[in-house]
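Protein phosphatase
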Amino acid sequence: MAIDIVPPKRCRVTDESEVDVIAGDDDERQEGLTPACDFMDEDIKPYETFIPEEVDSRDVGVTGKTIMVAGSFYIPKLNPAKPLGEDASFICLNKQVIGVADGVGGWAKKGIDSGMYSRELMKNAELAIHKQSNSTTTTSIDLMKVLNEAFSKTKKEGSSTACILSLSDDTLHAVNVGDSGFAVIREGIIVYKSKVQQSRFNCPFQLGNESTSDKPNVAEKISVPVIAGDVIVLGTDGLFDNVHDFELETIVNAGVDSWESDVPETLAWRIAQYALDNAKNTEVYTPFTRESHKAGIEHNGGKIDDITVIVAYIWPL
Ligand SMILES: [Mn+2]
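Predicted structure tokens:
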């Protein structure tokens, strides 16, 4: 079966404003304002995003009263040596599964690109989903099996967080390792948000082949009932370290107000752009500022990082 792997998205710019995401480790900020992508090139579209195919519930084999429709937006931080960044994601609407992974940046000090690990992990997760679900309904997908198989087949060096979500029988299922995560927003309010798993500040649980890395058995297994109209926001820490819950609620509400004409990738773009603005801002009080101070580290403003956002709308069938 030909499998359509969603490639990591390139940096997207939507207007004339310069993208000045700076290369370097999470805690390093350099002042060389080079655009992250050459948006003046006419060959490059203003932005690129993952626009899902039409989903037919009969093809999907959905067993509940709802279906998930998702779109994503990715803004990698500038690093000419690693233009794809370290985040990876996939959207597999036919099987009603979405996932993100965030390669751990610290490996760069050893000359290892963790983005290669996270991308292979997500590719293998999607392959495992297709392999596991030759059957007709989405209920049959076991996310722990998917994570275990993806992990065991991923051989690259490095390590990565992972958060994989599926919808079946009107329940959102998830397995989560590390500090990527998701929020369920209902009538404008976050009614569920996944917890961060970390061993210390800015050091998330992470899957990898080194003996010091975590294994899939540390994954938190989550089930959240959902209803039509819910909005799921799945992202890496580049989102959640830069955007407070109340800000996320505000952006989602603004988008959902016009949601008949709205599509999930547009909302994902709005959220990612907002996160980027905060990431670049050295004055704003972000979740990362708060957590830094709690850890006794002086840090003001946002956190420069790859930003991945997947928005999933829960639609009625
Ligand atoms: Mn990150």
